[in-house]
C-alpha cells in the first residue's frame, strides 16, 4: 500500500507511490471535481476541495452521508451492544475514523471522504452464489429483515500500522452461512466489491477489489457483516451498505461495499495478494513478529490520538481464532 501524507513513520521517498497509482489518484480527483457541479450535494463540499483549511466535523459527516433508511428500519440503529466484546483501550473518535481511511477505488490517499461525497453508485444488492444450497440476491431490506443487528466494539489494525477502536453494527457472517447453506465442497469464501467506473481499464491493479477467507474463518464467531458504525448506517467511506469485518486480520481483509459473496472449492485470488504476494499474504493474521517487508509490525498507532501500543498476536483475539491455525 502507498502513503501520500508524510509522517515520521512513513516510508522513504524512494518507496512512495508508484507513478501509475498517482495518475489513478489524479483521475479520481478530476471525477470528484466534476461531481461538484452536480447540484447542492456537491456544492456543500466545495470548501473541502478548494480550500486548504481543515474540514469541520459537519463537512466530514455530510461527505459520507447516505440516503436515510426507510422509517421502518430507523429504529434498528443503534443496535444493542454485545457485552462480550471490549476494546481494552479508548474508543476512537468518530471523526478520526471518518477522515482517515483506505478505499482504493476512490483514491490512494487517506482523505477518502472527499472523493465519496459526489458518488452515488454504491451497490444495491448483495449476491450470494457458488457452492451453496440456497444461492440468492439480497437487498438491504432483506438483510435487515432476516438478520438481527447487534453492536460490537472491535479493534481494527491496518497493515500500514494505524489502528482504531470502533463500534460496528452488523450480524455474524455465520448467520448468513446458515441461511444459504454452503455445500460440503465449499472450502473458501470469496468476497467482491462493486466495480468503480473509474477503475475500469485501470490495469495497475486487478479490479474489482476482492478478498477471501477459509470457510472455517467465515464461520468463526468474530466474522461480522457490518451495516453500520458508531450507531448509524455505514457512511460511504466506511463501505456502505454492507462490508466485512474480521478484526484478527489486517484491515485489508475487511472488504467494503460488498456486491458478491461466492462459495468455492479453491483459494480465491485476492486484490492485495495479487498486487504483491510478498507484502500481502492471503491469510493476513495480525502478527507483531512477522514484519512487513518494508516496515516493522511490532507496534501500532491509534487514529485521532496517535497513541502507540504494542501489536498483539491476532490483534488480541487469540481466544477466538488461535484454534483455527493450530
Ligand atoms: N475495501 C475496498 N473495497 N477497498 C479498499 O481499498 N481497503 C481496506 C479495507 N477494505 C479497502 C477495503 C483496508 S487496507 C483497510 S485498513 C480498511 O478497509 C479500512 O477501513 P476503514 O476505512 O473503514 O477504516
Q: First CA to last CA: what distance?
A: 29 Å
Instruction: Count the DSSP helices.
Output: 12
Number of strands: 12
The CATH homologous superfamily name equals Oxidoreductase, molybdopterin-binding domain
Total domain modules: 1
Query: What small-molecule ligands were found?
Result: ligand MTE
Main beta-sheet annotation: 7 strands, mixed
Radius of gyration: 19 Å
* Class of secondary structure makeup: alpha+beta
Shape: globular
CATH C-level: Alpha Beta
Strand content: 15-25%
List the helices and strands and how they pair.
Layout (H helix, E strand, L loop, with lengths): L18 H17 L4 H4 L2 H5 L6 H8 L6 H4 L19 H6 L12 H5 L8 E6 L5 E4 H7 L3 E8 L4 E11 H8 L7 E6 L16 E5 H4 L5 E6 L2 E2 L9 E3 L12 E7 L6 H5 L23 E4 L5 E3 L7 H4 L5
Parallel strand pairs: 1-10, 4-11
Antiparallel strand pairs: 1-2, 3-4, 4-7, 5-6, 5-10, 7-8, 7-9, 11-12
Bound molecules: ligand MTE.
The site of ligand MTE has 16 residues, from loops.
Amino acid at each position: 500500500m502507498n502513503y501520500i501524507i508524510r509522517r515520521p513513520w512513513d516510508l522513504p521517498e524512494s518507496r512512495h507511490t508508484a507513478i501509475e497509482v498517482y495518475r489513478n489518484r489524479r483521475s479520481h480527483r478530476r471525477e470528484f471535481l466534476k461531481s461538484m457541479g452536480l447540484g447542492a450535494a456537491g456544492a456543500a463540499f466545495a470548501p473541502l476541495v478548494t480550500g486548504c483549511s481543515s474540514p469541520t466535523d459537519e463537512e466530514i459527516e455530510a461527505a459520507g452521508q447516505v440516503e436515510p433508511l426507510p422509517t421502518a428500519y430507523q429504529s434498528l440503529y443503534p443496535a444493542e451492544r454485545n457485552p462480550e466484546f471490549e476494546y481494552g483501550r479508548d474508543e476512537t473518535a468518530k471523526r478520526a475514523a471518518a477522515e482517515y481511511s483506505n478505499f482504493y477505488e476512490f483514491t490512494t490517499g487517506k482523505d477518502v471522504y472527499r472523493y465519496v461525497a459526489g458518488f452515488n453508485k454504491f451497490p444495491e444488492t448483495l449476491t450470494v452464489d457458488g457452492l451453496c444450497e440456497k444461492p440468492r440476491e439480497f437487498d438491504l431490506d432483506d438483510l435487515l429483515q432476516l438478520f438481527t443487528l447487534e453492536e460490537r466494539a472491535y479493534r481494527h489494525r491496518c497493515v500500514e500500522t494505524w489502528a482504531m477502536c470502533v463500534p460496528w453494527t452488523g450480524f455474524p457472517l455465520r448467520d448468513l452461512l446458515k441461511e444459504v447453506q454452503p455445500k460440503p465442497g465449499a472450502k473458501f469464501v470469496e468476497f467482491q466489491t462493486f466495480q468503480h467506473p473509474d477503475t475500469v481499464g485501470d490495469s495497475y491493479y486487478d479490479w474489482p477489489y476482492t478478498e477471501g477467507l477459509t470457510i472455517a474463518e467465515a464461520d468463526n464467531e468474530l466474522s461480522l457483516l457490518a451495516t453500520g458504525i458508531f450507531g448509524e448506517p455505514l457512511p460511504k467511506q466506511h463501505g456502505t451498505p454492507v462490508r466485512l469485518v474480521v478484526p484478527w486480520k489486517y484491515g485489508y481483509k475487511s472488504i467494503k461495499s460488498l456486491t458478491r459473496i461466492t462459495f468455492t472449492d479453491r483459494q480465491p485470488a485476492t486484490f492485495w495478494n495479487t498486487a504483491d504476494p510478498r507484502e500481502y499474504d492471503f491469510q493476513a493474521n495480525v502478527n507483531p513478529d512477522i514484519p512487513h517487508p518494508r516496515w516493522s509490525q511490532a507496534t501500532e498507532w491509534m487514529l485521532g490520538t496517535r497513541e502507540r501500543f504494542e501489536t498483539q498476536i491476532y490483534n488480541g483475539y487469540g481466544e477466538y481464532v488461535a484454534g483455527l491455525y493450530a
